[in-house]
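Do me a favour: review this protein, sequence plus structure tokens, and tell me how the chain folds. Record follows.
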Amino acid sequence: MSRHWEQHRLRDANEKSRDPLDPIRPLLDLAEPFEPVLRAIKDLDAAAAAAPIGSLDEALRKRDALLLAMLMSNPLRRRNYTQMTWCEDNTGALYRRQDGQWRVRFGASDFKNEKKSNKSPYDAPLPRALAERIDAYIDEYRPRLIRNSPSSTVVFPNRVGGVWKALRSLNKMSKGAVYFR
């Protein structure tokens, strides 16, 4: 009995539990897979522009637009974006090098597949085209979201500055903004 169980355990450990492309298959099947995501970012920016200046609604739309833009370049798991931090002293997961390049870093233990990975930390650049968007978000919009929790280091906080647990609904948000148009 134990030999049978051991054979299945080893076989199952080496198999993928699902095809990782399944969730984005509708986008991959398009001639221009990024076009709906870019359109969603543009729509979020337009909604932010239509919101009252200085409002929480404006900040929420800018948060969502930045999140989608970062997901395009660094398709990390929701958990990584939920846990992503920013600190003025550059000790957070989102940080800026002296040359102005924004980067994202996580330890190997911050990933779901740490046992299968090469156990090296993740430190990747964000596109320079996002620098202005990140700067505006950090300087202008994020402070509105953390106004009730000014010491919060969360990059993508909820509307009162805490961990955005609804980030779990990212699939719902992105499908609504991207696929169903």
User: Anything to note?
Assistant: The radius of gyration is 19 Å. Residues 63 and 176 are 16 Å apart (CA to CA). The first helix runs from residue 2 to 13.
